[in-house]
Amino acid sequence: MPGRLSLLLDGAREGAPEAAHCADRWHVWHNLGEAVERLVNQHRAALRDAVAKDPAEEVDQNQQSGQSTDEVPRKVPEGRFTNRARDTHAAVQAELAHGHSLREIARRLRMTRKTVTKYARAATPESLFRDQWQNRATILDPFKPYLCQRWSEGCTKANRLYDEIKERGFKGSYSTVCHFLVPLREGSRPPTPLPPSPRTATRWIMSHPDHLHEENHQYLKRLLELSPELASASAHVRAFATLMDQRDGARLPDWIAAARADPACSLSSFATGLETDQDAVVYGLSTKWSSGPVEGRVNDLKTLKRAMFGRAGLPLLRKRLLLIAASRRPLTVTGATTS
Questions:
Q1: 95 with 130, same domain?
Q2: In whole angstroms, what is the distance from residue 317 CA to residue 173 CA?
Q3: N or C: lower Cβ tally within 10 Å for the chain?
Q4: Count of structural domains, the chain
Q5: pLDDT of 209 higher than 90
């Protein structure tokens, strides 16, 4: 909300013209994380490719089994949802064969145009099943790579594998592990692990490398190899984190110039936002001041307001707010205001 932010800045300047304005480091870092998450959302294909098996290894296994990559069967789920999807796909394709437009098909079948487009573009109904049924998130997903590794090492006893992942934090049941091991016992390919969400991948990019587990670190390495744009953004994030950690706000203009000049980096909008109040951001990255006390006071007021919503009038709310303000230690800021 640029308009509201502008009003707040103008009010702070008029109310305390002698004070130095200080941007909160947490909010600056949070805004950078949102910019990175928007970028990761544009690379969902790379998220899926990073969890896929090594193509060379897959081809080698198919050659050993005498089966080509295209001939590897994929188990298709059965049930009323899949049957309904097949019927819908057949109906949409039949309408297309008669020459009807997507808008007309949506009116005839009483469906949204977006849904009709999805079924019209699908060559077969089976191509629609992967993301909706086969890759649902389960409580076992974080432990599937470990189970596949132990299985390849020769450990095929379900009770032993269950005990091992239970020691690693698995909270599910023994039957869940047995169900996952069924395709492994039948000799089919292990199911592809579910790719992480864009928010999870963003958290890995924003985290210090020493704070990542080895599996997450390896996945992030593959992801950055597949996407040069994410690799460039990750390098700028590391540089910004170093700048914040060392309280070296004087180097912020150089970071902004580097981010805007990098054609492979999509953080130019974030860099432009920093320039709108660059003095306050530089001051915030160079000093110990933060808006923590102010945020705590605002949280108190919001909590009280929500607790009293629909139960009391404004006079009682005003009295309680004044009592809270009187009971708290006054906010004393010497020579700085938070924004």
A1: yes
A2: 49
A3: N
A4: 3
A5: no
Distance CA 52, CA 43 (A): 15
CB-CB contact of 109 with 123 (8 Å): no
3-state secondary structure of 294: helix
Fill in the DSSP letter of residue 84.
H
For 57, the domain range is: 47-68+137-185
Torsion of CA 41, 45, 50, 54, to 10 degrees: 180
Q: Output the six-digit token pair for 89.
A: 């796909």
Alpha-carbon gap, residue 283 to 298, rounded angstroms: 23
Tally the C-alpha atoms within 13 A of residue 85's C-alpha that lie toward its C-beta: 20
Question: Mean pLDDT across the chain, nearest whole number?
Answer: 78
Does some domain include residue 115? yes
Q: Which long-range contacts (CB under 8 A, 24 or more apart) does 92-97 make?
A: 92/116, 92/119, 92/120, 93/119, 93/120, 96/120
Domain contains 226: yes
Instruction: Please state, in angstroms and rounded to a whole number, the distance separating the CA atoms of residues 185 and 29.
Output: 47
* Strand pairing class (336-338; 20-22): parallel
**Which of 42, 69, 58 lies closest to 266 in space, CA to CA?**
42
pLDDT for 161 equals 92
- The token duo for 20 is 């130095």
Beta-bridge partners for 337: 21
Give me the residue label for tokens 């007309």.
104
Q: Is residue 312 part of a domain?
A: no
Neighbours of 289 (CB within 10 A): 19
30 φ/ψ angles, rounded to the nearest 5 degrees: -65, -40
Which helix (H) or strand (E) segment holds residue 21: the answer is strand 20-22
pTM for the structure as a whole: 0.53
Instruction: Let me know the angle formed at the C-alpha of 225 by 222 and 230, rounded to the nearest 5 degrees.
Output: 105
| Same domain, residue pair 97 and 53 | no
The 3-class SS string of 84-127 reads HHHHHHHHHHHHHHCCCCHHHHHHHHCCCHHHHHHHHHCCCHHH
CB 324 within 8 Å of CB 300: yes
Tens digit of each residue's pLDDT (9 = 90 or more) over 94-131: 998 888 899 999 998 988 988 898 888 887 777 676 54
Mean pLDDT, to the nearest integer, of 291-316? 79
